[in-house]
Write a sequence for this structure.
């Protein structure tokens, strides 16, 4: 979590009159910088780099601060409206050459970005009217290659969907790797917080189901669900990565609903926690305001309901003061757990204030309410612990009877331990049997002399699976390889399901895309939280043609005498995530690809246990990054059987151990 805020420990690099000078900065050391300052701005004009290069600019630029909204800017005696379009431009002076990137948080509500004369990215569709523009809400890392010297950054921005227009989000410039790492860190934190809040919500829902009379856990769970949803809609807007085509209006409605209803659920939680300190009529007033704003969010476009956000922020501030008053009353009256809960709320309230200031572009920080909620959760947990502690103190007078019960329970535990030991022994036997059964699913022997395979599960049983399919009418051979998310018995059970479905697939095995579609249809909603990546190809040795389809699996390597490339083609989503009808609507259906393999080459089919293996003593060093290419080229002259064996030896040597953190499956095809 600390890494997330490191970029705020230093002041941003200033853009002065449209120029930012990074020539004295060691980008290799710092990785990237945050940019802030005055950029050139042209209102109601969409200039391209070509216009600047040819001198087609017929007006003197004004300088507008970024990141900030353009609403407060005066133009020809008037204040600029929220809706409209314009062009931003600034020059980055740098001596660095190589792979670089620029991060622009989504301006409201569409943009196009050029570095010098190259269009490197966009969000939505920029237009001069609301009709010909398409808004978007997401943050992207835009990669480009610099040859050194000045870099002209040109950004066309339009807004017809939000109450603030312009480049309003943080801007980062630097090396490609560190900026992508930054995005991964932020997404990881978002997903971590999402998981925490969701688990908290489920736990409190379970508590409510057990004790229906206690309503506080229910409202607390609903509040946690709102915050969990908000995590996916702010900062990196992870929901847009999952569903790139999701409607901008839908994202905004969900985001604003979490704001509108948050105060309702929180006040209901407090009303059940400290019922003696609540003023019901004040609560109803807040509920009425929240209800009106929620209805507005549901029935009006984002441009309309977003205009009222600053006023609702005021309601949040008043609500925060009201909640503070409630906590103070509970503290003064020494309600159980009030002091710790109040401390947690104080942190939460500060993050709410931060979000309000950031949303109105008064300060430049992350939206942090989810962090505040995390602290609040900890405080609530400590409060509950204190309640349990006091309850324990009240029953200490029953120590003698408790000691007797403890002795009795100890004997029971001893008996249970013995039973548990026996169950463990039985489980070991069952796992051994499961391993034998899974080994029977793996084809033995290899179907031809020009194919060899190797499988090493991480545990006794694994989630990798492969099979060779033969056809009566020809010498063709089907090569199927899959990888189930997760490990152990659940993953192994899913592999047996895959094997069974393949055996029942009939003529579908003649068509890779059809077989994957059939598998997806039968596996959907049958694998719990697991999904399966899969590759299925049909190889014809007579023509060296391979017909294949890919469900989110790593593309195989093709190794020739002097080069390594991947067998690329259209790749769809993994199995058991989305049903076939939804895949069709998303234009992600499973499709066949065809390639002619080069004579005397090799094809290596594999699971991610190969590429993602790290050293035991340094988990930041990957086999894929360090030695994989050199190993494949060195072994290219070996027979397929020796090829997979030698790769495994090199993998063990690189790892420094024969134990791995994932299943490993290798299949080598010698193209003759």
């Amino acid at each position: 979590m600390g890494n997330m805020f490191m970029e705020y420990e230093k002041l941003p690099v200033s853009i002065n009159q449209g120029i930012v000078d990074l020539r004295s900065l060691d980008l290799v050391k710092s990785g990237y910088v945050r940019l802030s300052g005055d950029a050139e701005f042209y209102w109601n004009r969409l200039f391209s780099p070509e216009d600047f290069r040819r001198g087609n600019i017929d007006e003197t630029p004004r300088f507008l601060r970024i990141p900030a909204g353009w609403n407060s800017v005066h133009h020809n005696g008037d204040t600029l409206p929220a809706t409209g379009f314009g062009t931003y431009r600034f020059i980055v002076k740098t001596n660095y050459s190589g792979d670089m990137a620029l991060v622009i948080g989504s301006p409201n509500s569409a943009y196009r970005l050029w570095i010098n004369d190259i269009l490197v990215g966009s969000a939505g569709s920029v237009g001069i009217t609301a009709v010909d523009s398409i808004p978007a809400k997401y943050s992207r890392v835009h990669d480009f290659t610099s040859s050194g010297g000045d870099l002209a950054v040109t950004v066309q921005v339009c807004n017809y969907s939000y109450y603030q227009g312009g480049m309003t989000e943080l801007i980062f410039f630097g090396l490609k790797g560190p900026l992508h790492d930054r995005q991964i860190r932020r997404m990881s934190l978002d997903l971590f917080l999402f998981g925490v809040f969701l688990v908290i919500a489920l736990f409190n829902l379970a508590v409510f189901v057990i004790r229906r009379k206690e309503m506080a856990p229910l409202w607390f769970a609903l509040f946690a669900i709102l915050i969990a949803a908000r995590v996916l809609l702010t900062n990196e807007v992870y929901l847009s990565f999952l569903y790139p085509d999701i409607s901008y209006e839908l994202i905004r409605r969900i985001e604003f609903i979490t704001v509108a209803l948050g105060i309702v659920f929180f006040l209901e939680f407090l009303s059940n926690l400290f019922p003696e300190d609540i003023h019901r009529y004040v609560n109803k007033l807040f509920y009425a305001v929240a209800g009106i704003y929620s209805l507005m969010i549901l029935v009006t476009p984002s441009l309309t309901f977003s205009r009222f956000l600053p006023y609702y922020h005021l309601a949040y501030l008043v609500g925060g003061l009201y909640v503070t008053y409630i906590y103070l009353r509970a503290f003064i009256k020494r309600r159980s757990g009030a002091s710790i809960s109040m401390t947690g709320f104080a942190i939460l309230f500060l993050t709410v204030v931060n979000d309000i200031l950031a949303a109105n572009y008064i300060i430049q920080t992350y939206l942090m309410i989810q962090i505040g909620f995390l602290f609040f959760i900890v405080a609530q947990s400590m409060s509950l612990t204190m309640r349990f502690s006091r309850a324990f103190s009240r029953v200490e007078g029953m120590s003698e009877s408790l000691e007797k019960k403890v002795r009795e329970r100890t004997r029971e535990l001893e008996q249970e331990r013995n039973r548990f030991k026996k169950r463990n022994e039985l489980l070991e036997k069952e796992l051994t049997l499961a391993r034998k059964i899974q080994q029977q699913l793996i084809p033995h022997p290899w179907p031809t002399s020009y194919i060899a395979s190797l499988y090493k599960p991480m545990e006794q049983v694994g989630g990798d699976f492969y099979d060779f399919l033969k056809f009566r009418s020809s010498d063709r051979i089907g090569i199927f390889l899959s990888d189930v998310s997760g490990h152990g018995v659940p993953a192994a059970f899913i592999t047996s399901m895959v094997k069974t479905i393949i055996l029942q697939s009939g003529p579908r095995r003649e068509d890779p895309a059809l077989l994957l579609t059939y598998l997806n249809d039968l596996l959907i909603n049958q694998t719990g939280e697991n999904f399966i990546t899969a590759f299925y190809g049909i190889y014809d040795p007579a023509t060296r043609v391979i017909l294949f389809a890919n469900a989110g699996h790593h593309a195989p390597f093709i190794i020739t005498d002097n080069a390594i490339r991947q067998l690329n083609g259209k790749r769809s989503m993994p199995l058991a995530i989305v049903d076939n009808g939804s895949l069709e609507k998303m234009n992600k259906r499973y499709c066949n690809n065809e390639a002619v393999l080069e004579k005397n080459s090799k094809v290596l089919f594999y699971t991610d246990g190969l590429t993602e293996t790290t050293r035991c003593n340094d988990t930041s060093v990957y086999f894929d990054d360090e030695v994989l290419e050199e190993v494949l080229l060195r072994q290219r002259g070996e027979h397929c059987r020796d090829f997979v064996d030698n790769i495994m030896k090199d993998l063990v040597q690189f790892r420094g151990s024969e134990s791995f953190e994932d299943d490993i499956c290798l299949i080598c095809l010698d193209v003759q």
